[in-house]
Structures are given as C-alpha cells and as structure tokens.
Amino acid sequence: MSFADLGLSDELLRAVGDTGYTEPTPIQASAIPPVLMMRDIIGIAQTGTGKTASFVLPMIDILAHGRSRARMPRSLILEPTRELAAQVAENFETYGKYHKLSMALLIGGVQMGDQVKALEKGVDVLIATPGRLMDLFGRGKILLTGCSMLVIDEADRMLDMGFIPDIEEICTKLPAQRQTLLFSATMPAPIKKLADRFLNNPKTIEVARPASTNINITQWVVPVKGPSFEKRKALRALLGQEEVRTAIIFCNRKTTVRELNKSLREHGFSSGEIHGDMDQPARVAELERFKKGDVNILVASDVAARGLDVKGVSHVFNYDAPWHPDDYVHRIGRTGRGGATGVAYTFVGPDDVENIDNIEKLTGQKIARVADVPEAPAEEAPRRERSGRRRERVADASPRTEPRAEAPQVDAVRDEAPRRERTRRDRDERPRGGRERERERAPVVAEASDDGGWNGPVPDFLNVGLRY
Ligand code: AMP
Fold first, then answer.
1. Which of 45, 115, 378, 392 is most buried by its number of CB atoms within 10 A?
2. Which of 205-209, 242-246, 279-283 has the lowest mean pLDDT?
3. H runs (alpha helix) in 64-127
4. Ligand 1 center to residue 397 CA distance, Å?
C-alpha cells in the first residue's frame, strides 16, 4: 500500500514524499481513511508506530477547508507532556508545509504572552497540555465551542499523570458534534470509560498488542550485584562499544539523572541531562544539543523524556528498571523507530529485580541476560592517557538465562510529575525512607573509587568534544 491509496490530498502527498517515507505504517494505513471519513477512532498503538502522522495527516486535509476565528481554535490536540506537544507541532510543520494552517502550542513552562497572542488571532490547530489549557480557559482567554475535532493522545499516560479529570472537563466544553480521536498504548478501565463517555461509535484500531515491545529492538538484561557504582562501571563499559552511536539513559529518580550525567562527564563522555526539575527552555536547549549531536548521550527521567522523537537513537539504557512496567515499553521505544533496529539494555541490581519481574510479566517475554556482566577496568588511568587503543567487546553476544533472584523490597520514591489521580501501584510504592536509604547505600567512599579516568581506548564518538 502507498500513501496515495489513503485518500490524502496532493499537497499532503508531496509533503510526505519530502520526508522520504514511502509506505504508510500499519496504524497510518488503518486510521487515515476512517479519520478522513470523519469517524471517531480509538487507536491502540505505542509510540514508534507512526501514530502521530496517523492523526496529523488527515487533520491537515480536514482543516484545509474553513477559517479560524479569534480565540476559537478549530481543533484541539491534548498531549501529556510539553515535549510530546512540541513534537506534534513539528509534525504539523513538516506535513503542513504546503498548507496554510495556523497553529498554537499551549504548554506549561513557557511565557504565556505569545501563546495568547496567537490564540487571539485564531488558530486551526491548538496543541496543548491539559494543565495550561485549563489555566487559559479559566481566564476566559479561550473558547472551545468552535472545536470540531479533538485528539486525546497517549491517554494511558494522561491517566498516569492524573490528567483524566481535566480531560473530562475539557471534553464537556467542546461541542457535542465533533470528531474525537483517542490514542493509547494500553486500554485500562478508566480510559475505556473515558472513551465510552466521550466518543461516538468509534472504530477501534489496534496495531500492536498492548505493552508488546518492538521486534526491531534487541533487549538485554545486565545483572549487577552491587551498589550504584557497579552499575556505572558496567554502563561505561557498554557505552564504550563501537556500535553505541547515540544513547538515551533512563533513571527512575531526578537525583540519579543529575549524578549519573555528572559522573559520565567526569569520565569524558559527551552527555547531557533532561529531567522534570529543569524549566522548559533548559529542557528544549538540552534536547536540541542531543538532536544536533553536540552530545551523543542523554540521561533522562521518564516524564521529561516521554515521547521524545529523536531520530536514530541506537541504544537505550535503563540504568534503573522502571517501576511501572509500561514505562519499559515506552522507554525502549525511543530506539528501533521507523523500521530501524535498536538495542536496549536494562541494568538489574537488587532493587530492580521486582521491577524486571513485572516487566517480563506484562510483556510476556523473558529478556535475555548478558552472561558476563561488563566491567570498566578497576584501575582507571588518568584521562589524558586515553588514546586510540580499541576496546574489547565486553558484552557476551550469547545470552544465557539466569535463575531469578528473590524479589527484595523496592524503595521507590517517584519524584516526577504531579499525580492527582494516584493509581494502586503508586500507593503501593509510597516512600519508605527510600531517599535517605539511597544516600546510605551510596557511601562517599564508593563514589570516590568510581572516580578517575577511562582505561580503555576512546570510542569513536568521543574523539570529538572530549573535555579535559
Ligand atoms: P510516532 O509513533 O508517531 O512517534 O513515530 C515514530 C517515528 O516513525 C517517527 O520518527 C516518524 O517520523 C517515523 N515515521 C512516521 N511515519 C513513517 C512512515 N510511514 N515510514 C517510516 N517512518 C515513519
């Protein structure tokens, strides 16, 4: 099947052609025709499947006719995070380049003035995070009565972040006569309820089993016995592999993101960080540095990294196994995008055993264990001695299944986005002095022995931008 078979306009086909994409992905092939026929849609698809274009493309053609009015957007796309909202906006720019549609982005963390100005002129497409939209709505700056098209994207993530009451309220402000598209990687009960209440005779399209992982991603578990500095050693060794061109490293805590990035930089890696404590301009700047290749490693927390669409991420590392098994699917979905292949490593120390168990239960897959856990050399040479010596491949290519260790108690402190609607899992994860204990577990002496240079040769990507 080609894009031309989907009923899209010539201008749109030209814009798609410019991107180099020749064939629609399954979600695009299944969703675009019914959306063009004005059907409501439930799209069960994870990120990485091309789902953004599956609603952006038909929306552009639908909105091509008609005019916007002041403060009355014609369509609304709700996204859980600013980064994801910005990415959808980029999609509109890419595919809408031969159309004259106006767009506004309404996201927290940036000055409201320009957003309000754009809205006052009238926009065809409003892309918003629920919090900022409710804020502006409350101030009477925006009317949703002209909004004939609504997209609720990443609905399960909205649920996780406590946005469902906001979304319900927003839905009641839109005209009843509208087209609604809802996308979600999974369909938990509250999302089904939301769909039942606000969608009209929707067509359900499912392109991948909920929580199934992308077959283009090779997954490994890296068992680590000891405390965090052992994880760091193993991580540095894996990052030294030739094939690691670009990597996103996920951590469960913001403090870990900061500490790990600092440690990697001290070891001469070209890394940056993105987490929920950073303001929006700082996050965007850091993301740009990664996209431009100024840094090739991005250390990230879940919420900040949600939906990041950075092309060609060769590797994903889960420095911590995520507490929520569906986050695993989202995290590793940063690689292996658009048909490319990718590799995901998940470090499993004593605190991660229960999490990896839950992940394997959810995905129905046993993840191969790296047989010989890689180690960066214990005696590390001063950085200036690093030279072009090639590093031995450290990860054993032949996976071996390890017997399961007994699951220890998880000390989980989720220090990410606000959650008004806490799930049972969250309640189960109430902090039990975890942060304090984390400090205890990472004694100064361990950190000190973790310091120093890299004893192996310099990976290719470090030949540029090394800081001494
Ligand atoms: P998404 O699931 O929307 O986040 O998209 C995942 C990635 O697939 C993005 O990098 C898109 O640019 C890319 N993509 C979207 N549509 C196609 C297509 N038809 N063929 C190849 N890649 C695509």
1. 45
2. 205-209
3. 82-95, 112-121
4. 29
Tally of structural domains, the chain: 2
pLDDT in tens, 355-372: 999 888 877 788 999 887
Domain with 412, as residue range(s), is 217-396+406-425
Token digits for 72?
């009355």
- pLDDT value, residue 165: 95
- Looking at residue 74, the DSSP 8-state letter turns out to be S
Mean pLDDT over 146-162 rounds to: 93
By most ligand atoms within 8 Å of CB, the mutation choice from 25, 47, 57, 329 for ligand 1 is: 25
Q: 323: domain CATH number?
A: 3.40.50.300
Report the amino acid identity of residue 327: D
Same structural domain for residues 385 and 299? yes
* pLDDT the model gives residue 422: 31
Average pLDDT, the chain: 77
Number of other CB atoms surrounding residue 298 within 10 Å: 27
pLDDT of residue 41: 97
Q: Which residues line ligand 1 (CB under 6 A)?
A: 21, 23-25, 28, 47-53, 309, 311, 337-339
pTM: predicted TM-score of the whole model, two decimal places = 0.58
Q: Note whether 329 and 373 are same-domain residues.
A: yes
Residue with tokens 């399960």: 156
> Would you say residue 459 lies in a domain?
no
Tell me how far CA of residue 364 lies from CA of 42, 115, 154, 330, 356, in angstroms: 24, 44, 22, 16, 12
Strand, helix or coil for residue 303:
helix
